[in-house]
Amino acid sequence: MRSVIRSTRKKQSFCCVGILTIPHSKKVKQGTSHIMKAYVDWFEERGVRVLPIPYDTKEHEVYFYQINGLFIPGGETVYILKNETFVDSVTRFVELSFQKGEYFPIWGTCFGFQSLLHVIGDIPSFQRHPNHGVTPLRITKEGRHSRMFASFTKRYLHYLEAYPSTSNNNEYGISPREFEDNPHLRRFFHVVTTSIDENGQEYVSTIEGIYYPVYGVQWHPERQNTTGQFVDFFVSELKKNKHVCKGIPFVRGTVQAHRCVQYPEHKNLHCYFFS
Questions:
Q1: Which of 28, 90, 263, 273 is such that its CA lies 20 to 30 A from the CA of 144?
Q2: Which spans in the chain are helix H?
Q3: In 10 A of CB 259, how many CB atoms?
Q4: How far apart are CA 263 and CA 240, in angstroms?
Q5: How many domains does the chain have?
Q6: The predicted structure's pLDDT at residue 61
Q7: Which domain range does residue 71 map to?
Q8: Which residues of 207-246 are buried (b: 16+ CB within 10 A; e: fewer)?
Q9: Contact, 261 vs 35, CB < 8 A?
Q10: How far apart are CA 53 and CA 57, in angstroms?
């Protein structure tokens, strides 16, 4: 756990990220799992190749060495955390990333953030912290010295704190006290930012691994043009990984996007569906 983060840049003209598919909570015509198109676009607009990884794969190690990092997207917390197959896949990739000599970035957004807390902190469930608006961040002392914020200008950090800067769509979360009371989370992560929910309660909104390049945000940076610095940071982390990803196609070149019919609140958005 206390290995020092080291990395070796490799000569490769592009990098690639694996995105774990999200199992459906109910039957839809377009298959058994999906990835929201916004997540794919977030990376492809930066020239990153995206490899969809079936949540029920048994080939975790094969996928692991084909990608430079893993992205765990959003989804329905209560349902998906009960899906042992999905949780097992997250656990396996996290374990593989801890291997000696590896620098394997992992990023979780919204439910992906919670899945990392579930796996690393052994948290069985989360408390209600509803937030469905655009709100500012509260940057912690550790956040100001974090790897994630190291390249951000003072002006941009001020924007994140002083203005409605982050898009949120969560029902659940974890309070700073709950976080600190969990020895696994306290030893593994720094809390980078907190946010205030619709009930005026503070919850953890951004985290960063202390000894490993594992990151999570409770909010949605992929939904705003003003938060591209976060994907730029993660892409810079992907480029530090040693794996060589050959022949991985763009998702949009092999799969057609359809409306996200499984999310009534996102019926105007598009998803990639997988059988």
A1: 90
A2: 37-44, 60-64, 77-80, 84-97, 111-121, 141-144, 154-162, 176-181, 183-188, 228-238
A3: 14
A4: 35
A5: 1
A6: 96
A7: 16-274
A8: bbbbebbbbbbbbbbbbeeebebbbebbbebbbbbebebe
A9: no
A10: 7
Q: Return the sign of the alpha-carbon dihedral for residues 266, 268, 272, 275.
A: positive
pLDDT of residue 248: 58
Taken in order 77, 161, 39, 50, the sign of the CA dihedral is negative
**Beta strand spans in the chain (E):** 16-20, 22-28, 31-36, 49-53, 70-72, 106-109, 127-131, 134-135, 138-139, 166-167, 170-173, 189-196, 202-209, 214-217, 257-259, 270-274
Average pLDDT per block of 10 residues along the chain, 275 residues long: 42 83 77 88 92 94 96 81 92 97 97 96 94 97 97 96 96 97 98 98 99 98 90 97 75 58 64 84
> What pLDDT is stored for residue 178 in this prediction?
98
Which token pair is 239?
């480029």
pTM for this one?
Answer: 0.90
Q: Compute the distance between CA of residue 237 and CA of residue 29 in angstroms, rounded to an integer.
A: 37
Query: Please, are residues 86 and 52 in contact by the beta-carbon 8 Å criterion?
Result: no
On whether residue 73 sits in a domain, the answer given is yes
User: Which of 66, 69, 92, 70 shows the shortest CA–CA distance to 21?
Assistant: 70
- In this prediction, residue 251 carries a pLDDT of 53
Residue 81 pLDDT = 80
Strands 31-36 and 22-28 come out as antiparallel
Contact 271, 252 (CB under 8 A): no
Which residues are tagged catalytic?
A: 110, 220
Domain for residue 22, yes or no? Answer: yes
CATH of the domain at 73: 3.40.50.880
